Each structure stands twice: as structure tokens, then as C-alpha cells.
Write the C-alpha cells for this entry.
Amino acid sequence: MCTVTFIAAKKGYLLGMNRDEQRSRPEGLPPERIEERGRTIVCPSEASGGTWISSNDAGVSFSLINWYAISARVDAGAASRGDVVREVRSAESAEACEEILRQLPLGRTNPFRLIGFFPETQCISEWRWELTSLTRQDHRWETQQWISSGFDEPTAQEVRGATFQKMLRQKTSGTRDWLRRLHRSHSPECGPFSTCMHRADAATVSYTEIRVTPFATQMIYISAAPCLCRIPSDTAFSRWRRREMRLFREKNGSVREGAL
């Protein structure tokens, strides 16, 4: 149960993701920097170490959503789908990601859709696993959205998609503030189908935002429904970044400005 929104730019992109989970599920851990396979990666994580979204210093991001439209499930002892992003998060290209995926033992992994965003080639690639086969679909580098729901996926896609299309007509469409308004939206009403989702047993539990430019990759993570939190303004975030980078330099030595 998630909503992923991609906003295309000529030399970068914005990405927002609402993570929807059962209220009984343990809270995710905030983002950390990881050095892996020669790349610097930032991502939140589950207690097990898996993750649902990541970005690396090549500007490549991955997000994974459950594929509820496929009813088939692993009988018992299913592997965490979060392990998939953990395995591919250092990839610099769709081809490198594909090679890793083809080598993974996915037989015990329930259906998923993995979306990769590759700014160098302005390519979006989506891999779909449905228990017996892995397929890849490439998308145009344009603003778009992906939606999943374990409650009623077709209706969630219809309702959230309509909200997305309606908001695209606004003058501020594509800005960071617009993206945040979309992801905290309860239109047309607060419930299981709103973008910021609320049910008795499940809800939107976090919001992750990634901004990639030719100079930097930035991530904001809110460990609550976005409707309940004040997300920093662009100015506040810029100040936080400068302070955060200064503290990082003082602790770890000189680093290139704008690096993860």
C-alpha cells in the first residue's frame, strides 16, 4: 500500500513516496548514509535491514511497491521484499540493476513492482515480479504516479489517480510544495483511498522525498503521516542542508559540497 509520485526535470527530478502499512507493523528507521560497492547511498530501513526506497550518489533512486493485483502468494516463509531494494540500491544504470535482479533467488519473494529512476539516461524502468517471471517495462521521462493498495487496488488507483490529475492542472504543479500537498491530501475524503491513507487497521506511516539535481541528492524523511507533520519549507531545508553538511565535514573531514 503506497503512492509514488515522480516529477520530471531536464536535469534531475523530484520523488515523493507515501508508505502505507498496518498500524501494528514496527516503525521504520530514519535514513542513514551507507558506503557500498563504491557508491554512497541514503535510505530509510526496516529493522531487518531492508528498505522500500533509496537513492545513491549517481542520482539513481529505487522505490518498491507491493503488487496486490497479483493474487498468487508464497505459501510460507516468504522473503522480505525490502531485500530487493537493498540488493540493487548501488546500481548506476537500468542494465546494472537488471543484471542484479536476474541473479537474485526471487522464488520466495511475493509479487512486487520495483521502479528505478536513472537521470543520466532520463530513463524510468519498472520491473514486475509475479512469482514465476520477472518482466521489465520502460517509461518515458515524464511526471507520473504509481499506486498500490491491499484493500482495493483498482479503486485506490482510480481515486488517487483522479486526485493526481486534478492537481496537475494547478499553476504550482511540479513544485516541491505542490508534491507535499498532494501526498498529504485527503481528497475526495479521508479514508482508504485518499493519497494520505487512513483506515482502522492501516495508514500512511511515513513520507519520503528525494530531490536530485546535477549537484546534489537530497532526502527528507517524515516518520508519520504527512498530514500530521509540518514538512520543512525549501528555505528551511536548505539551511538544514548547509548546517548538516558543515557538521558532517567537522566529523568526517572535507567532503564535496552536495554529495550525499
